[in-house]
Amino acid sequence: MINSKPNLIIILAIAPLFGAILQAIISNFTGVDYGHLMIVFIIVNLGLAYYDEDRLKLTGEYSSTLGSPALVPLYLYRRAKLLNHSYIYAIIWIILCIGVVLTPHDMMKELAWIITFQQ
Questions:
Q1: Exposure check for the chain: N or C terminus, fewer CB within 10 A?
Q2: In this predicted model, what pLDDT tens digit does every residue of 14-61 receive, in sequence order?
Q3: Per-domain residue ranges for the chain?
């Protein structure tokens, strides 16, 4: 049986940042406009949410009341409510998502460049 440690949920909570950085890295290497690579951001967030749902099903903690993981903040809220965990993960996801949207594309690409080529 899989242990339902909060490690994956922490990664899911900060997934907007991972998705945006990966989006910027791909943009830097391919030359494709950062905004046109929004699918990368979406895939990272939805992929982690669906993976978390699968893990909950394996542990037997899944409930149909969770709804679809496609609505990540709502899924995180309902997951916390179901498992009697903190709502902080949903709050962090929302704050990071807003931060990523408000961050200028050039700044995100510069951050990705620094992360990629830091020695």
A1: C
A2: 999 999 999 999 999 999 999 899 999 999 999 999 999 998 888 888
A3: 8-113
Q: How far apart are CA 67 and CA 36, in angstroms?
A: 29
Is the four-CA dihedral 26, 30, 32, 33 of positive or negative sign? positive
The amino acid sitting at 58 is L
- Distance between CA atoms of 54 and 30, rounded to whole angstroms? 33
Residues 98 and 117: their CA atoms lie apart, in Å, by 27
* pLDDT value for 1: 39
Lookup result for tokens 């749902």: 53
Q: Tell me if 34 sits within 8 A of 109, measured CB to CB.
A: yes
